[in-house]
């Protein structure tokens, strides 16, 4: 067994997210994402919502990008999509928690973008392969500042996204098929959820492609917005 504390190279630092009204930042540990959680989006993707259980994919924590940055158009795609989402920030351990107890594990919420290489995701889906190339894109988990749960309750707030000022997505959080407590409870039966775990809760209808130079603005009433500028490809 290697007991050395020395490192061959520096361990990567976990990214952080600012918290509204806090000087300390929230360190990101893992990123879970819910698929098909708005019926109208599932329809535009040509699939049905699974009413028996939510399903997930993941992104590396190192894919985290704070709001306001410019990120290069990624390699390997000709159909890079925005997806505007409500993000849950876990703030306490949660292991096999009930729906009734799930709220205790929620530290807060933020606005997020699940940027997606749609062409690669759909190719993978058609071939019954994992979605990693489509979804676990470097610098694709964009996130705005976190608002603590004491200051924000999920109801029927508007969730929307515009590209260069033109509205593309416009829905309500009450359209979520799986509610935030149901998601936390369900996921906690598969993972020991810990502070630092983020859960992207899925996107409403209206997803679409962006090109270099586009400015994306995502908003949820009561939360800070999330912004991304798409840069030239590397
Ligand atoms: Mn998504």
Describe it.
The protein is mainly beta. The chain has a single domain (16-231), classed as Fumarylacetoacetate hydrolase, domain 2, CATH 3.90.850.10. It has 4 helices and 18 strands. The protein has helices at 39-44, 118-126, 132-135, 180-187; strands spanning 16-17, 26-27, 30-35, 55-59, 64-66, 69-72, 80-82, 84-90, 106-114, 116-117, 141-143, 147-148, 158-163, 166-172, 197-200, 208-209, 215-220, 226-231. The strands form 4 sheets. Strands 3, 4, 5, 8, 9, 11, 12 and 15 form an 8-stranded mixed β-sheet that branches. It has a 5-stranded mixed β-sheet with strand order 6-18-17-13-14, with no helix packed on it. It has a 3-stranded antiparallel β-sheet with strand order 10-7-16. β17 and β18 (226-231) form a beta hairpin. The model has no long low-confidence stretch (mean pLDDT 96). The structure holds manganese (II) ion (MN). The site of manganese (II) ion has 7 residues, from loops.
Architecture blueprint of SSEs:
Elements: E1 16-17, E2 26-27, E3 30-35, H1 39-44, E4 55-59, E5 64-66, E6 69-72, E7 80-82, E8 84-90, E9 106-114, E10 116-117, H2 118-126, H3 132-135, E11 141-143, E12 147-148, E13 158-163, E14 166-172, H4 180-187, E15 197-200, E16 208-209, E17 215-220, E18 226-231
The protein binds manganese (II) ion.
